[in-house]
Amino acid sequence: MELQTQVHALEEENKSLRAEIAAKSDYLSVMVHQLRTPLSATKWIFKMMMDGDLGTVSEEQKNIIKRGYESNEQMIRMLAEVSEANHSLEWRMQLHTEPIDIGPCIDNVISEFTGEAQSKKIILHFAHQPNLPLVLADKEKICIVMQNLVENAIKYNVPTGSVSITAEPFADKLVVSVSDTGMGIPLEEQPNVFGKFYRASNAKKTEKGTGLGLFVCKQIIEGHHGTIWFESSPNIGTTFFFSLPTTASLAK
Amino acid sequence: MQHKILIIEDDDFLRSLAVTKLEKESFVVSMAADGQAGLLSAQANLPDLIILDLMLPVMSGFDVLKSLKSQDATKNIKVIVFSNLGEETDIKTCMDLGANDYLVKANFTLDELVDKIKGLLGSATSSIPVPPMS
Prior knowledge:
Chain A is of the alpha+beta class. Chain A has 7 helices and 7 strands, in the order ααβαββαββααββα.
């Protein structure tokens, strides 16, 4: 009787917590939408000023206005990342999975980031093996994970460095790795890396970011019953790994 | 051949900036500040393209889109959804309802909006009629 009461109480608590999470998530969606309106207005005004649509602007004035425009763009980007992180918790619970070949997804992400890699003279390479086992996955969400990992690998890398991607079967899983030759993650900070809004001290010094990318990746991979982890040596580089169960293993 | 654009947007300032830009590009522009007025304007003026916000008073952009697509007179008018909502579900709903494109306002400058419009309509500023895009 006692146990039944406890179970019931826990179920009620669970329901109420889920409702609270949903309410907070909705609130955040509304906030993101509301903030985008004044940000759009500012974006368009700065652009019109830079283009001379509102009257002649000196080169010096243009440069300052450009800073305003970029600052505004950064706010817009941050909102997009916050929105993504907000939804990543829901995504974890609502993945639309199907058997997929992860190869094309990785190829697409490579094409997407080729330009950015080239501008830093970074070599971006995927050792695409044929006949990779299929994984049961939400294609769009796995692409988001790849985008985040590749973006970080380029961002925190050194010029003329490299980013190498592999995908290999290992026991009943498919393991994907993304390696870079970049700044690495300081040892004492490594336990915190997947935390919401966490940014390592060396990362903060050189690049802008919200600290949400890896948090989102973790939600997605764990929602797939996979694992995400990394190995890193400061000033040498970092490799991120994630594993996904193969469809063959799930059929057992 | 000048193209007619209808912009349905409730934020006065954003609407005025967009109208200024579109008129500079030689489009003939009409506007509405709520969904119902927008729908009536579309039915009366039969524009070539509608720029449609989603969070609108009186009638939402989703309902406007539904109505436009359910009537023979208006179902072929091109629609660009232009909104600061950006959830996957919103985008999917609009594209399933027949929108030609979905742009998040904060991610596009007005020049880029004009490029998208021209892409859907073909060149709007030439005085020689442009053959329809296949």
